[in-house]
Structure formats: C-alpha cells, structure tokens
Amino acid sequence: MTSLLSIRNELYERAGRLSPAAQRVLSVAVAQRSLALLRQSAERDEVRRPVADLAPEGLAVAWAVCAGAPAGSDVADRLRAYGPAGPGDPILFDDQSVLAFVQDLPDLIDEPGLYLGGVADLMFSRNMGDFPERPYGSGELLEVAAQAFEIELLEREPVTPELIERIREHATAVGEALAG
Amino acid sequence: MLVAGIVALLVLAGAGGLVVWQVTKNDKPPTTREQFRAAVAAMGAAEAVRLLGAPIGGASTDLTVLKGGQATGTVSLGGLKIDVLRVDERTYVKMPATMLPGGDQGDLANRWITGGAGTTALVAGAVTTPAALGKQLADAVEQTSSFPAVTDTVDDDRTRAWRATTPAGVLTVSVDSPHRVLRLVPAVTAPSIPALPSIPSLPSFPSLPDLTGGALHANLAPPRRAPAALGALTFPAPDVEKTYGTLIDNARQLTDAIDTSYRFDLKGKASFRGCGPSSCTVAQTVTNTFSSKDVEKPSSITVDVTVTMTGDGRPVGGCKTARTVKVNATAALSCTNVSPAWSAFYVRARATRGTHIYAAQVRVMAKATTKATVDKSIEQLRKLLELYRSQQENQPKPSAQPSTSSNTNKCDQVNRTAELARARTKGDNVAKAYSRPKYQGLNQTIAILVVCVVKDGSLYDYAATGGVAMQLAQASVAQPARVVPKVGSEHAEPAAIARAKADAVANPLSPIAIYSTNPFCREGSADCLDMVQQEPGSQTVGPQGRERLSRSAIFNPGIVWP
User: Residue B470 has what DSSP assignment?
Assistant: First the structure.
C-alpha cells in the first residue's frame, strides 16, 4: 500500500521540476491555505494574533510578486519580526501555523522557493494531538490532493495572472475547508 | 506476672547494651559518611523538597519545590506575607496592599506579579529544585572529612539524628532509614559553595513600570542583601499532592498576572476621537521597553489598557481593553468609554453654557501570560500529578532514590557509549528531515532517549521534539521509535523522559542514554537548565555549558523506572 509520505515525496519531486516562478506560486498557495488555520490558532492563543492580522497583507504582496509586480513593501520584514527566537518561543506552543507567515512567506516575497510542507505538517501535528478538541483526520490528505491539483495545473499551463488567480481562489477555498 | 515481665525486659536491654559496648571498645567506630551520602542523594532524587526557615532579618520562608522546578509557598517579612508561585520557569509573587506604594495598591495588590529586578528576582533565588539542592549538599558531603560515629547521635526536634559540619554548614540527617536531610545551619562563610542555600535576600518591592511619566515612580528602598549569618533551614517531608493542588489553584489566577519586565513611556498626551453622547474614544501612543534579564525577550506581549476619565473634575467612567503589541516598539492604543456616566456628562455639558473640560488618564500594564498558556500550564501540572499518583500506586514502598534491581543485568551490560552514538546519529538525521532546514535549529529540538526493557533486555528509543512538533517525514526517519506527541511548551528531553517513565509503570525500563540536538541554549536563555543532569543517575557527556550545540547524557547502570 502506498503511504501518504511516499505520495508527498513524489509530488515534491514533481514540484521540484517546475520553473522557479511556478514553484513560488505553488508555495504561496500553501501559505494561503494556512491563513484560516492561523486565524483559528490565533483564537486559541493571542500571542499569534499580530501575525494573523498581518498575514493577509503579506499574502497580497506575495501574490502580486508572483504576478510580476515588485514587492514594494516592508511586509516581509514585519512578518519576520514575529519569528520564533528559539524552540522555546511561546509563538510555537501547540501550533506552528505562524511559520508559513514568519518564515516561508517572507522568503517567498524576497525570492522564488519551494516550501510545500507547511499545511501537511500542520495537519499531521494536529492529528498527533496539538488540537485534541477537534479532528483533522483527513486534513493532510486534502492538502496533498490540493497540491496535486495545483502541480498538474502548473505542469500544463504557463504562469499567467489568470492561472495565479485560479490557484489563489482554489487555495483560499481549500484553506477554509481545512479549518472548517 | 507483671513483676516477672519487667524483669525479663531489663535483662534483654542489658544484653543489647553489652553487645554495642563490645564492638565500640575493640574497633574503630564506623562513621556515617555513607548515611550522609544516602540522605543527600535521596534529597536530590526526591519528588519535592520543602524548605522551611527563618533565615534572615525577620524574613522567613516556607517553600515547597517540585523536582520540575514548580514551587509554591510564602516568604514572610515583618509580619507581612508574600505568596510565591513558580510555574513554567517563571517566578511570581503576590503582595498585600500595605507592601506596595500608594498609587499601585489598586493595580498590583493581591495580584500575581512577575519580572523586574525587585522582589520577584530575589524570591526566585529561593526556588531551588531538589536535584540542585541535593547536588550542592552532595558536593559539601564529599568535601567533608569528619563524620560522626554511628553511635554519636543527637536529638533533633525529637528525631534521632547525626550531625556533621560540612563546608555548606552543619548538616543534620535522620538515623532512621531511609536517611533524610533534616536540617542545615548554613556556615557563616562558605567560600566554596557561596550560593548555598539559595534562600531569598530581604525582599524589596518590585521594580514597577513607569506608567505615566513618573506618576507611578515607587519610593522603593534599594534591595538589601542578606547579612553573612544565615538561620537554619529545615526540610520537613513535603505533601506532594497538596503542592500540586495549590499550584493548580494558583496557576488559574495567572490570567490576571502582571509582568513588570517592561517600561512604558507614553508619547505625548492622550487624544480624543469621536467623543459624542454615546461614547468617547481615547487614543495614546505608548513605547514599551523590555528590561528583564531573567527571561528571554518575547516577540510580543499583551497589555492591559485602563482609561479613567473625568468631566469637569468628576469621574465620568472609563474603559479597559487588552491589546497585543510588539516588544521594544511603539504602538497606538485606544479604548472607548461607553459608560452612562460619560453620556450623562456629555448631554449635561451640551445643555449648559460655559467651558466643560474632560480629561483621561491612561494606565498600561503588561500581562504576564495568556489564558491559553495558563490552560496549558494547568494541564501540564495535572498530567504530572497523575504521573506522580500512578507512580505512588505502583510503588507500595516508595523510595526517594532511583530503584535498583539485580534483574537489570541485561540492561546493565548494554554498551552505553555505543547507544549514545546511535542516538546521536538518529537525532541528527531526524533534524535533517525537517521541512524548513534553514530554520531547523531555531524552530525545533530533537531528543532521542534509549531505554532498555528490564524483563528481557531489549532496547528501544523515544523520539521527542521541543518547539515545532515532529513532522511526518521526521517520524519516518526516527523509526523504529516511539514518537512522543508534543505537549504545550514542554522541552524535548523532559517530554521523552516523562513518557518513558509513564510507560515504565506497566513495564519497567532502565534508561541507557539520551541525546538532543541544538537546543534553545544558544541564546543564553534562562530556559537552558540542565534538565538531563537533574535526572538521577545521569552523567552529562560531551560539550556542556550555554554555548554547547547539543546535549547528551549516559545513565548509570542499575536505574529502573518507575
């Protein structure tokens, strides 16, 4: 039987063969799917609230950069300022949803990159007990399915503003479903 | 019959006395070095230690400290009592109003306070874990050359005891087995162990944040250090269950705790926005400066903003709000007064000729923690209490020392150095599998604990993380191992050890070695305690100190959990 990890690894290999611009779109989509999860997390622990407040601005800039616009904003630095000072930083207690925004997203605004683990790892850790009050059983699989869909889109089509918008809408909807 | 019975008893007593006399007459009397060693080792391995004493200048302490560093109790000063609480490696104090400057009695009295360099920092020095205290006393015992003879007992508060003069002071231990440390009268000068015992200096008031440009400047006496002479410390048996209960009760109150590590400077005067018959919003720009040296600087804090308003010199209500702000930064705070008193004032002022002045006073205080963090702390304490109870149930004859067994031969023969090397390789490989390799050391600590199953001598590993939870790819690399789910803020090594001890209740385990990757020590954090070193029987190997990149320890043979 094929394991979820092997499916993930195969997808990551395929993603690694995409153009840097496509990899950036794929990675920003992961961060986009993290937004609703971050908001949920910030409700549990207000130390994460400033990141949740700033994240939409960071995502807007990142999507614009994907479409070819200059960053033109210091939002990457402002997001990084909330990054953990070490493994004992309270911002990491129980949930790591901030990392997509204080580490991955600022790096993606600065330059293309491939950061695909954010939501899948988050789902795995929540299933392991970080969020004991609610089930996230199939969340990891949903995230992997969403990535597979987006990778196939980016394998077939060039990166255009229209495709970016489709992926953005898709990622937003999946993110809401994951948190719902 | 009664007369005959008494005679028989006297004869027996005489015979016993004769035996002792013969031994002591012909041989050099055996000393009690081993009994003192056993007593301080028992203290080091104890679940908790209670420190009771009247050490200095009218101040007395009654603190119970658990092996994890959590503590509760009181420091009394001149008849006034300061409550002490230590959880999550932070020390809080609660003082009566009479110990606080007039302006702060309403804000800080009978409320848990942490941070700053005042009372909290001084009281924090009193919180010494059983392991740390046991180690200090063990060092003192090892430096002692003269111990009383077995027969050279004294009466210590109606308990038969031995007394020895050590570099740390005069140490008294019980004659009855298991031997316990009963009392320490610290030496007037103990240059080799200056920090022992870590009892508080005469507490001063806390360093209060300067809230309103000087309005809350406290007229505080400078902290007075303890005189050289210290009073006796006694160590009554602690009530561990009760201590957990008190800790949980007090921890619940921490949602209201204040952190005085911050200085607040108000920029300019408060401004008013949209003031009308239904409400009035007060805005204030505030700069905060983090000053604590005891805790790591957080990235953000929650502040309580309290606005008190007056209209024509009379109170017209106010408002309270909580906001999260970045540390060492400037933030615009606002709060809206919707009280009936304000509405009444506004309507009255509009209807009355003349100038009507309204004013606002803004007070800002940093909250020490969040409800979520408090909930996690309480949950953690409950789990520790459950673990303690289960250990008690499975140990009908509890011993403060790690138990040893002749059945651990197979486990005792394990090549510990080789297992540590294997744990190191596994731990480093798990770390490399982290999805954000650039940030691995910043986000996560990995611990690999190797244990041996006592009944069959087989080995297996526990894999735990601190910071970010174990990821799927990492869990795969860690196999074969029991992956420990991450609980709250728990660090990697204690998480692995606690899980193994819990499992050991059903199936006894002998710890072999533990390795952890680059942890939070690099920052010189106060969190960086030698948690593994505090585990009875462990011997830290490899690089040590705050700058070390990894930690590892080998456990002595013969230790069996639980």
Answer: P
> pLDDT band for position A109 (50/70/90)?
very high
Nearest-CB residue to A81 (from B326, B371, B468):
B326
DSSP string computed for B432-464? HT-S-GGGHHHHEEEEEEEEEETTT--EEEEEE
**What is the Rg, in whole angstroms, of the alpha carbon atoms belonging to chain A?**
15
Query: What is residue B160's three-state secondary structure?
Result: strand
Q: Pick the residue with more confidence: B217 or A164? A: A164
Window from B291-305, B426-440, B526-540 with minimum mean pLDDT: B526-540
Look at A99 and B527 and tell me if their CB atoms are within 8 Å.
no
| pLDDT (0 to 100) of residue A10 | 92
The whole-angstrom distance between A94's CA and the closest CA on chain B is 5
Compare CB distances from B472 to A47, A96, A124 and report the shortest one's residue: A124
Angle at CA of residue B526, ends B521 and B529, nearest 5°: 65
Q: Is A73 strand, coil or helix?
A: coil
- Number of residues written out for chain B: 562
Q: Looking at CA atoms only, how far is residue B39 from chain A in angstroms?
A: 35
With the C-alpha atoms ordered B312, B313, B314, B319, is the resulting torsion angle positive or negative? positive
Q: Peptide bond before B562: cis, by omega within 30 degrees of 0?
A: yes
* Per-residue pLDDT, B401: 43
The per-residue pLDDT for B101 is 62
For A82-105, b where at least 16 C-beta lie within 10 A, e where not — what string? bbbbbbbbbbbbbbbbbbbbbbbb
Q: How far apart are CA A24 and CA A11, in angstroms?
A: 15
Spatial separation of the C-alpha atoms in residues A108 and B174, rounded to whole Å: 66
| A62 pLDDT higher than 80 | yes
Half-sphere exposure of A40 (CA within 13 A, CB side): 21
For B223, the token pair is 């902290």
Average pLDDT over residues B80-109: 77
The answer on pLDDT for B196 being more than 70 is no
Decide which of B390 and B506 is more confident. B506
Q: Which two tokens stand for residue B289?
A: 């400066």
Strands (E), B102-153: 113-114
pLDDT beyond 60 at B178 = yes
The Cα–Cα gap between B193 and B142 comes to 12
Tens-digit pLDDT profile for residues B207-247: 333 222 222 222 223 333 333 335 678 888 888 988 999 99
Report the gap between the CA of B463 and the closest CA in chain A (Å): 14
Counting one residue from chain A and one from chain B, the pairs whose CB atoms sit within 8 A come to 136
For residue B314, what are the β-bridge partners? B311
| Burial track B114-148 (b if 16+ CB lie within 10 A, e otherwise) | bbbbbbbbbbbebbbbbbbbbbbbbbbbeebeebb
How many Cα atoms occupy the beta-carbon half-sphere of B105 within 13 Å? Answer: 6
